[in-house]
Each structure stands twice: as structure tokens, then as C-alpha cells.
Amino acid sequence: SGMHLSKKCSVFKVVLSALLIVALLQLIYLSFLSRFHGKQQRYRYSELFGGSAAKKNAHPEKNTRKERLRYSLSSGGIFDNSGQYRVYKNLIKSDFTTNQKPGSHSNSDILTLATHTTINNLHHLESLLERWQNPLSVAIFAHGEDVKFATALVYALSFFCPQIQALVDFHLVCLSGETASFPEQDREHFAGLEDCTSVFSRLETHRDKYQNYAMSGNISYPNNLLRNVARGGTESSYILVIDIDMMPSADLHQQFLAMILRRAPAVDEVFVLPAFEIRHARKIPSTKAELVQLYQVGEVRPFYEELCPRCQAPTNYSQWVNSHVRETGTLDVAYTLNWVDPWEPFYIGPRTVPLYDENFKQYGFNRISQACELHVAGFRFSVLSSAFVVHRGFKIHGEFHAKKEEENKQNRILFRSFKEGLKTKYPSSTRRC
After folding, report:
1. What is the average pLDDT value for the chain, to the nearest integer?
2. What span, in angstroms and rounded, lies between the C-alpha atoms of 90 and 248?
3. Which UniProt keywords apply (predicted)?
4. Rounded distance between C-alpha atoms, residue 196 and residue 217, angstroms
5. The whole model's pTM is what?
6. Cβ within 8 Å of residue 72, ≥6 positions away
7. pLDDT, tens digit, for every residue of 396-432?
8. Long-range CB contacts (< 8 A, 24+ apart) of 399-404?
9. What sign does the CA torsion over 421, 240, 200, 51 have?
């Protein structure tokens, strides 16, 4: 039995040493892998930010991209009219904008989508661009630590994502006391970034730190300044301004182009896209037929239906839902309306429409002030037959940031004086709002 025991022991020893060898090999392999991955990361990093390790001529066009970013940062940006904000216009330009000859107009240049966000909602850009697939201008507001993070991630997006590189212009707005700088020594922002997907994953993890309007450190989100910056960043004849968590119907760019070639728009006409909101888990509809189906079962409803039904009611949803679309893919004007208070339509407008009033920040009256000015300036609102925008998620009471009511009150007072100001700005207009 002693012999039996020692046999058992030696078998045990053999198994144990085999296991140890396997473990050792695994460790060696893992350390090799991490060294290799580290090397790859360092290469990726040096590729992004130059330095001795980068092969200088590996990506000449990427190097000029880097030089362009350095150049736009070195300008130090410009102050807005109030002197409270610093604006880096065209922090990063798309290939589309860079290759544009002044005064030349291509078809893609007819209509640009302009949008605005903080870094927290920038992850929406991925699906927005996938749907839009045409020139896009994004104004980003960042504050504090996020200024560095925004600069770094916007650069990484334009570096790793071919479609963004091709079509998206980025503008950065921060407080006037802050400056953006080239993210040279910022390894922590870039660790693990190796392709477009990984940059969006990084943005995802950043997403819900706070809502756009609930900024940390009691900072105002300058939505109208951002809208103007995004709008001013484009040479297009027409501009669609929407929030970044909204999605236009599919093929809108091409359908709009076909429509204005068919019927020349009047100079005083803007084209309204009826606005809806959809339950969070739902896939965003592409066509009017898909939208109407979801609308009929309550999965989609008019935008702001619970919070301010009057703000969108003038669109006349029942008329729109029932209006006949000539044939799929053809865009027409379904009907034309005059503006009535308190309508806040989303629309495609010529680049000549009045700018947004930048005194409005945070929550309340920021878009209605501009719609009301369009009305006083003599514009009419033509509702498009089959195009629309959809906001992701139902807007419900109680999910807003704490100071919303107070901001609304301040902006209501501001709106009164804004309306008075319009009388002097448009003395010959009989329209009021």
C-alpha cells in the first residue's frame, strides 16, 4: 500500500508540473501578447500624434490632417458677440469642405445638416451620419476637462472613420477663459483606440454623465450660439438645423434636391419636416409608410406631445398623416402655413434665414424666437409631404434637469423684449408674434 501511495504521489507530481509548465507558457504568451499589443498601441498612438516613432511618410494625408488641426488650434479661436465663449470654427474640416473651390456648387453642396451637442451626446453622430450620408456640420460645446477630451476624440473620429473624414466638419465652443490645445501628451484619452468602432465605444462610456442642459459647474449650454456656429460653418444653399438626438427620414438629401430642381423654391419659403418622437427601444423608421404604421399603434407620437402639445400642433399632424404621397421617394409640398404662436417647427431653410438669437441659452424659447422672427420677416412655412424628423425617446414630465422651470421663466422675459426688438428690426412688417 506504501508503494501504491508513492505511485499516486508521483502521478500527482507529474500532473502538477505539467500544469505549472502550461501556466508558465501561458504567462510567457500573455506577456508577449501585451507587449505586442502595447507596441501596436504605441504605433497607433505615434501614428495619431507623430513623434519619432511614426514613419513620417506612412500617412502623408493623415499628417496634413494633424497639421491642419494644429493650425486651427493655434489661432486661439474667436470670441462670440457676448465675449463669454471662445469659438474654434472648423476645428476639423471634412475632405468635402477642404476640397471645395470657392464659388463652385456641386449637388452635395445644396443642403447641409447642422447640429449641436456636448461630448456626452456625440455618440449619436454615428447613426445620424449613417442615415444622412451627406455633408454635416457639428458644433460641440465643451467645458473644463471635456475641452481636452473633445479635441482628442474629434481628432480620433476624423482619423479613424472614413465617412466622418469625408463629410463632417467639427466646430468647438468653450468658455472664453478656456483654450483647446493639441492632445500631444494625452495618452489616457487614446489608450485602446484603434478603429472607428472603438472611438464610438469610448464616446458611449461618456454618454450619460449629464444631460446637455445639466452641465456641471453651473455653466449655461449656449444652444443658439451653437446652432449659428454649425450653420455658419457651411457654404450650402440650404441648411437643416436639428438636435443631435433626432433623425431625418431616409434619402432626404437626394429627394430634396430632386424637388427643388423640379419646382424653384420662393425666396421667402422654408420647408417644414413634421417632428415626431419614438419609444426608446424602437428602430427609427426610414419612410413615411413605416412612420405612419408606428404612429397608428402609438409607438410614435408628435414631438413634445406630453410637454407642450401646442408647440407642434400647428404642423397639423392628422392632415399630414392622411395626406397622399404621390409616389414613394418623391418629395412635394403638402400644404403651406403661416406661423402661429407657439409653433416651433424644424425646417430646411435657405442660408439667408435670420440667425438664432444668441442671448437665449439653456432651456426655453430658443427656437421659437427664431421661428417668430422668420414670420415677422415674411417667411411662409411649407410642410413637406413625406419627409420628417424623429426624436429618440418620448419626452416626458419629470425627466428634465432641475433648473428647467427657472430657466424657462428667465427666457420668457427675454422673449418679450426680443419681440419688441423685432418691431424696430422689421419696421415695415405688419406681422407680429
Report:
1. 86
2. 24
3. Glycoprotein, Glycosyltransferase, Golgi apparatus, Manganese, Membrane, Metal-binding, Signal-anchor, Transferase, Transmembrane, Transmembrane helix
4. 31
5. 0.85
6. 88, 90, 91, 92
7. 886 655 566 777 777 788 888 999 999 999 999 999 8
8. 400/211, 400/213, 400/363, 401/210, 401/211, 401/213, 401/214, 401/363, 402/214, 403/214, 403/362, 403/363, 404/213, 404/363, 404/364
9. negative
> The C-alpha cell of 329 is what?
421617394
Q: Looking at beta carbons, which pairs linking 160-166 to residues 24 or more positions away fall under 8 Å?
A: 160/193, 160/194, 160/195, 160/196, 160/198, 160/199, 161/196, 161/199, 162/196, 163/129, 163/130, 163/133, 164/94, 164/125, 164/129, 164/196, 165/65, 165/94, 165/95, 166/94, 166/95, 166/96
- Residues 325-342 have pLDDT tens digits of 766 678 999 999 999 999
Cell triple for 355: 440667425
Nearest in space to 273 (alpha carbons), one of 310, 315, 223: 315
